[in-house]
Amino acid sequence: MSAAAPKPRVLLGLTGSVASTKAKELVGLLISFAEVKVVKTAAAAHFFETDALVGQGCEVYGDADDWHSWEKKGDPVLHIDLRKWADLLVIAPLSANTLAKITSGVCDNLLTSVVRAWDFGKPMLVAPAMNTFMWDSPFTAKQLNVLRELGVHVMEPVSKTLACGDTGKGALPPPLEIANRCRTLLCVGSDR
Questions:
Q1: Which residues constitute the domain of residue 157?
Q2: Average pLDDT value for residue range 70-79
Q3: Is 107 a catalytic residue?
Q4: Active-site residue 164, yes or no?
Q5: Catalytic pick among 46, 153, 164, 182
């Protein structure tokens, strides 16, 4: 009897969008076919309980973890280790703020440092989620073009009534659609 193939490894980035409230649902879908680790920005932490994700069996990292894991030359560097570990980087939701940072090369937190070090020979998927006015900004269009030029897969937001009460495009796609896109990028069948 042969051993089961190892599960692919998904690194999920959560950013400061109210759509981070869907983190538990998304993680639940991803862990059905992949090993999952989560990197949260400080702003994302306002929208979900870290313990809920840990309870699903995944490790959750924040900015402080990057600094506390290193004391001297030769020690592990967390953002590099996560970059090496992951087969796929998914940022869902991708806030307007983090979009601007990563397309400018800013690496001032754990997640943006992972992106800056990312091997673009491996897939990256982003699912922007922001207010309609932010989505419609010419800055957003330019920044998304930068990602696409790098080969990043972009899932368009959906139209609905947003958390602020406005109605329009900017909501996170359903977690099931994000998970299915991850399956496709990882070439993982739905039988797992």
A1: 12-186
A2: 83
A3: no
A4: yes
A5: 164
